[in-house]
Amino acid sequence: MSTNELESKVRELRQLQALIAEAEAEAETIRDAIKVFMGDSEAVQAGEYRITWKHVTSTRMDTAAIKAALPEVAARFTRTTTTRRFCVA
To answer: Which domain holds residue 51?
Structure first.
């Protein structure tokens, strides 16, 4: 691939990313409108669609607190990974 082709691909990628961001923002606006309509209801029926908006409870480890209280234990159970981050600036 030549530099010109690469530049063209990057330009196309950025345009597509902008379209995706715009579509995601529009989808979020629609989600918010549906949530306003639902109010405190956990489920509603809209024609063929069943929409649910339920409370979900999850339990997570507070790693900062573990590191502060038991740094040696936190160090034993901490692992480092390496990944590649793709970024177009």
So the answer is: 3-76
Q: For residue 29, what are its two tokens?
A: 């606006």
User: What sign does the dihedral 56-57-59-65 (CA atoms) show?
Assistant: positive
Q: Where are the beta strands (DSSP E) in the chain?
A: 43-46, 49-52
Cβ atoms 52, 42 nearer than 8 A: yes
Report the C-alpha gap between 50 and 45 in whole angstroms: 5
| Number of domains the chain is built from | 1
For residue 33, tell me if it sits in a domain.
Answer: yes
Instruction: Please tell me the distance from the alpha carbon of residue 18 to that of residue 12, in angstroms, as a whole number.
Output: 10
Q: Tell me, yes or no, whether 86 lies in a domain.
A: no
pLDDT 10s digits, 17-58: 999 999 999 999 999 999 999 999 999 999 999 999 999 999
pLDDT tens column, 8-26 = 999 999 999 999 999 999 9
Question: Does 51 map to a domain?
Answer: yes
